[in-house]
Design brief:
Helix content is 32%, strand content 5%. The chain is mainly alpha-helical and 174 residues long. Helix 3 (60-70) crosses helix 4 and helix 5 packs across helix 6 (142-148).
Length: 174
């Protein structure tokens, strides 16, 4: 086979029309490359559902149901959202039970202190995890002890794996 020589091909602009028009800005200055939502930087160039997953405590399924409740188009980019749409999204994320999102969908069910159902987002996820671990350590639960000793918690084998850089082996006789 003969190798073809490298040629530069010029592709007409009409073929790129679908790629270029995917980022539509309706008014000048409305698109923002970065949005600040719930103490998190959200990429404006990504579609809204996937952009919301940058917020800790919001996954794809939760973002999907929030956008359905807020009546926001899934094909929009996060940078194209208006201020009112962002406020609606934040309101639904913070108060999901008022918008008829089922209790089983939330990430904090039957909270130990209050007995209520919550959707924890951003810093609240870290705070509740830390509080739960501290409570388990204080009560001396097996799971809390394992966390305290930096060992595997969920029943994994630890004889040979998870040594974290420490190696144990047989030394050679001289």
């Amino acid at each position: 086979r003969r190798l073809q020589s490298h040629r530069i091909r010029f592709i007409p602009l009409q073929q790129f029309q679908s790629v270029v028009s995917s980022l539509v800005v309706t008014q000048k200055g409305e698109f923002e490359a970065m949005r600040r939502v719930l103490n998190t930087n959200v990429d404006g160039g990504v579609k809204v559902m996937y952009a919301l997953t940058a917020i800790k405590g919001v996954g794809r399924r939760y973002a999907n149901i929030v956008l359905k409740k807020a009546d926001i188009d899934f094909s929009k980019r996060a940078g194209e959202l208006s201020h009112d749409e962002l406020e609606r999204i934040v309101e639904i994320i913070q108060n999901p039970l008022q918008y008829k999102i089922p209790q089983w969908f939330l990430n904090r069910q039957k909270d130990r202190t209050s007995g209520k159902y919550w959707q924890l987002v951003s810093n609240a996820v870290d705070n509740s995890l830390r509080e739960d671990l501290d409570r388990m350590k204080k009560v001396r639960v097996h799971r809390g002890l394992r966390h305290d000793w930096n060992l595997r918690v969920r029943g994994q084998h630890t004889k040979t794996t998870g040594r974290g850089g420490r190696t144990v082996g047989v030394t050679k006789k001289k």
